[in-house]
């Protein structure tokens, strides 16, 4: 029998979300990656402090590294605190790393983080995807399409 997720489960919640990513990039397949974190970074995430809005991932010596993500210092840790904007290694399988690097090198795409969350086991995970940057006219077209869908739904509701 499958267990249902609890609504207020502290182990299963979104800490940070990159809402601009879906606006600025064409999103591909989403991959779940682990993060190599220190103890104070995990405590800061559990409090709910993080920002991945302007971050991206790139290759460093055959590994994927998250760059420019901000996890602020944990208040109760004094001298053992972490650097807020350090590069954090992403934990992925070799096959996944090869697939991501191939897309970045051949097709000119970017590895974009979508959300940072805790999974069912209480581990910090990062949902990443390979995205191609949208042009301004693509963004306008998506906006028009979204507005039309909203208007169409409103008309259908009114007609009954």
TrEMBL record:
Required for rescue of stalled ribosomes mediated by trans-translation. Binds to transfer-messenger RNA (tmRNA), required for stable association of tmRNA with ribosomes. tmRNA and SmpB together mimic tRNA shape, replacing the anticodon stem-loop with SmpB. tmRNA is encoded by the ssrA gene; the 2 termini fold to resemble tRNA(Ala) and it encodes a 'tag peptide', a short internal open reading frame. During trans-translation Ala-aminoacylated tmRNA acts like a tRNA, entering the A-site of stalled ribosomes, displacing the stalled mRNA. GO terms for molecular function: RNA binding. Belongs to the SmpB family. Residues 134-160 are annotated as: Disordered. Keywords: Cytoplasm, RNA-binding. GO terms for cellular component: cytosol. InterPro entries: SmpB (IPR023620), SsrA-bd_prot (IPR000037), SsrA-bd_prot_CS (IPR020081). It comes from Cohaesibacter celericrescens. One of its GO terms (biological process) is trans-translation. It is found in: Cytoplasm. This is SsrA-binding protein. CDD domains: SmpB. Its main location: cytoplasm.
